[in-house]
Specification:
InterPro entries: HotDog_dom_sf, MCH/BMMD
Largest sheet: 2 strands, parallel
Helix content: 25-40%
Number of strands: 2
Structural class: mainly alpha
Protein name: MaoC like domain-containing protein
Shape: elongated
Distance between the termini: 22 Å
Mean pLDDT: 83
Radius of gyration: 17 Å
Strand content: 5-15%
Strand order of the largest sheet: 1-2
Order of helices and strands: EEHHH
Length: 78
């Protein structure tokens, strides 16, 4: 596995399976970010914004889960 520094201008042929590409930017997702995005997209899954319901869900560890649409938007944005 090779670790590559952040750099612009790569083509599809430049990528190798298993290599790690460091990105110069990062983003911490807060509960407010997740809630706002969930409400903005009218996602009605209560696991994204209802702390009382999420606390009883053993799959999520009792925590609110981040909206997957927000995850995709952030990955594409970075």
């Amino acid at each position: 596995m090779t670790v590559h520094p952040a750099r612009l201008g790569r083509f599809i042929e430049d990528f190798t399976v298993g290599d790690v590409y460091r990105h110069p930017f990062g983003r911490t997702i807060s509960e407010a970010d997740s809630t706002w995005f969930t409400l903005l997209t009218c996602n009605t899954n209560q696991n994204h914004f209802n702390a009382h319901l999420a606390a009883g869900n053993p799959v999520t560890g009792g925590r609110i889960i981040v909206n997957s649409g927000l995850t995709v938007a952030l990955v594409l944005g970075l």
